[in-house]
Design goal:
Length: 440
């Protein structure tokens, strides 16, 4: 029988630190999401006055417009900024895909706490650049630095796995997922409110950026003072042990029930279609119901709020494989509903189904992935798992919106639903539930 990795009291203390720090981090991260349209319009208008300038922003917009004009179906100019925001989002995800395995491996070698504090240093630099971003080039640099340094989510997942035994793993991962839902429910609204407070004329968004920086600094200090190491640093005496085969150390290395290739492939394909659908949401709600950004924000807030309730009350009690299966089935239903809906009631019904998906699939896949790795390799394995998801998130919006404009909503969501059926085949036909050991 397996022993609990830490005492119950210590586990609660560490979970509290993980939850509070991750919530601060994600609220800070989501500040910028509703500001992208206004923020990018500000930089575009700023550079429009200088017609002779061949700036980075001008070259990016030229490329995006060439892409947009390649479609026979007209695409409104109101989407120029949305496309630019999507391109920056894809860049951020691509950089995360590159950095995540390295950050995870760093945490395996030098400890989770050390890796997280270094990641926080990069986050501070990123947000500080945003505070000082009086031109697009500086803002772009802040996104690049942030994409290469953001490691809080994957390290929080690794730490949650470090301090949880097999029976606690699912509920602990659901707690990490709940941070996402809570932050995405309240963070964008707070960011939008702060953007209305102008303190620096050269950067109208400096107030929101400054408050985001304050949250990051508080988080960093909090982690430095209260976060213990959950994965001890590997010492020379342990390196010789690491050369011993897994068969000789069955207590350290778990018996695998799922291959990492299958888990990573499932994560990639799911995020590929799901992120594409997410990005198409503003286009669809505008085309069908003339939704304003505020109305779309309320719809997304409803999804986040419902997802957080489900994670706290349902997901944490479900076996991880069952959670993934339930979320994929719900996602398939939402795709086909979104392709055929004609009423707002149908839209909100689809949003409810998407909340189920948001509350279950990624949390369940992270939990399944954590079961397949020993403590000495968990950071790297979970980093690779996240990396494949970020590749999907970088490609999904581009591919899905291309399909949306080329073939129309019905065809795009039908193909998306078919893709989710493929994910369902992997989830129901390939993945297996972990073997849970009893604890003393």
């Amino acid at each position: 029988m397996a022993n609990p990795p830490v005492s119950s009291a210590q586990r609660k203390r560490i979970l509290r630190v993980i939850f509070i720090s991750l919530l601060l981090d994600l609220i800070s991260f989501t500040f910028i999401l509703p500001l992208f349209p206004r923020l990018l319009e500000f930089y575009r208008n700023l550079e429009a006055a200088d017609q002779s300038s061949n700036s980075v922003l001008r070259r990016i917009l030229f490329g995006l417009n060439a892409y947009k004009q390649s479609f026979s179906r007209p695409i409104s100019d109101r989407y120029d900024i949305v496309l630019l925001g999507g391109a920056l989002g894809s860049l951020f995800s691509f950089l995360q895909a590159i950095a995540s395995p390295f950050i995870g491996s760093l945490s395996d070698k030098h400890g989770r706490r050390t890796a997280l504090l270094w990641s926080m240093a990069g986050n501070i630099a990123s947000v500080a650049l945003w505070v000082a971003a009086t031109d697009f080039r500086t803002f772009l640099a802040s996104r690049v630095v942030g994409g290469l340094s953001e490691g809080n989510v994957q390290l929080a997942t690794a730490m949650a796995a470090d301090i949880s035994d097999e029976k606690q793993r699912g509920s602990t991962m659901a707690l990490v997922g709940a941070c996402f839902s809570i932050a995405f429910t309240f963070g964008p609204a707070l960011g939008a409110a702060l953007a209305n407070v102008e303190t620096v004329a050269a950067n109208p968004f400096a107030t929101a950026a400054g408050f985001s920086l304050l949250l990051i600094l508080v988080e960093t200090l909090y982690l430095y003072l209260y976060l213990p190491e959950t994965r001890p640093v590997t010492r020379p005496a342990e390196l010789s042990k690491n050369s011993v085969s897994r068969a000789a150390r069955p207590a350290e290395y778990p018996t695998r029930t799922n291959s990492y290739r299958l888990l990573n492939a499932t994560h990639f394909v799911f995020i590929l279609f799901f992120s594409g659908m997410e990005f198409s949401f503003p286009f669809m709600t505008y085309d069908l119901f003339a939704y304003t950004p505020s109305q779309s924000g309320k719809l997304l807030g409803f999804i986040g709020l419902l997802a957080s309730i489900l994670q706290g009350g349902v997901t944490r009690r479900l076996p991880p494989l069952r959670a993934v299966q339930a979320g994929v089935v719900s996602c398939v239903a939402s795709f086909f509903l979104l392709g055929r809906l004609t009423t707002e009631a149908g839209l909100w019904a689809a949003a409810s189904l998407l909340a189920v998906t948001t509350a279950t699939v990624v949390t369940g896949l992270n939990t399944l992935s954590s079961f397949e790795a020993a403590a000495s390799e968990r950071g790297g394995k979970l980093g690779n798992h996240r990396s494949w998801g970020q590749v999907g998130r970088a490609l999904g919006p581009l591919l899905f919106c291309t399909l949306y404009w080329w073939a129309g909503r019905d065809v795009a969501y039908a193909i998306g639903g078919a893709g989710m059926l493929g994910v369902g085949a992997l989830v129901f036909g390939g993945l297996k539930g972990p073997t849970i050991q009893r604890t003393n």
